[in-house]
Amino acid sequence: MGVFRTLLNVLPMRTMTLGAVEITRIVEWHAPAAAPITEIFPDSTPRMWRENESWLAPDFWDPGTDRLGVAVQTWLLRNEGRTILVDTGLGNDKERPDRPVWSRLRGDFLERLAAVGVRPEDVDVVVNTHLHADHVGWNTRLVAGEWVPTFPNATYLVPRADFEHWARPEAAAGPAGAAFADSVLPVRRAGQAVLWDGSDGEYRIDGSLALAPAPGHTPGSSVLRLASGTDRAVFVGDLVHSPLQFAEPDCDTCLSEDQVEATRSRRRILEEAADTRSLIFPAHLPGHGAAEVRRDGDKFALSRWAPFASI
Ligand SMILES: [Zn+2]
Fold this sequence. Notes:
Layout: H1 2-10, E1 15-18, E2 21-36, H2 37-40, H3 46-51, H4 53-56, E3 61-62, E4 67-79, E5 82-86, H5 109-115, E6 125-127, H6 133-136, E7 140-143, E8 146-149, E9 155-159, H7 160-167, H8 177-189, E10 193-196, E11 203-204, E12 209-213, E13 222-228, E14 231-237, H9 244-247, H10 259-276, E15 279-282, E16 291-296, E17 299-305
Parallel strand pairs: 5-6, 6-9, 9-10, 14-15
Antiparallel strand pairs: 1-2, 2-4, 3-4, 4-5, 7-8, 11-12, 12-13, 13-14, 16-17
The structure holds zinc ion.
């Protein structure tokens, strides 16, 4: 037992517990972004990055190459006996003509899930915070030439506003149109999708977890709030792409459909997170993956990183 405990202590930490909810980080992809940071964050200035270099470099920004560090990861939650995945990454075998590095991947995501004791049939709930290609990929997998739901027993929670946005015929040829066709529609056809909207303010998953709208990055972008015991967290999808956005919350990315609305949502959710001391889990942060912030004038400052091993 003593040896076992020692081994546990030296293994890189990838699971933490908040209240009764166990949270495990499953990293599918980790690489520098292809574009320079000022292209990804058009409103950011070189000075903003330099001023925050001491805590952003090297995990979140490489000053030498001027590239953003990006992870694509799934947050695996276990609560009330159920297994929940928050966002499903890139997926394998997908054709992504606009993003060749994400095309026809042969990654080991399912093996990484298996390594923490999760088989596809064990997943009860899949949350897509929004319907961009890097959040729905493992919704489906290719079996005998057909896209089928990867998680046969899961209910997939899909924001209705995003579903309707990408169901428009003219959206098929645009960004994320291919992902909608190969990763969202097959789940819908299989009868496993629940299209939720925010008309009641939230969509409750269980006693600790509830989805809420946070539009702007996409029309249906959403956050997942966790409240268990005295612990709080919020899974924010792509509301935050870099911790620079704590210090500069008005900086949005070129990836958003509506940058003004995305910024309004980010400020609202970060204010709430700071006031409730919620741990913030973005989809794409490398490093320790999640952080708590406090108010700093009309901006935010880092209070602490999550205890996950840094990548
Ligand atoms: Zn994303």
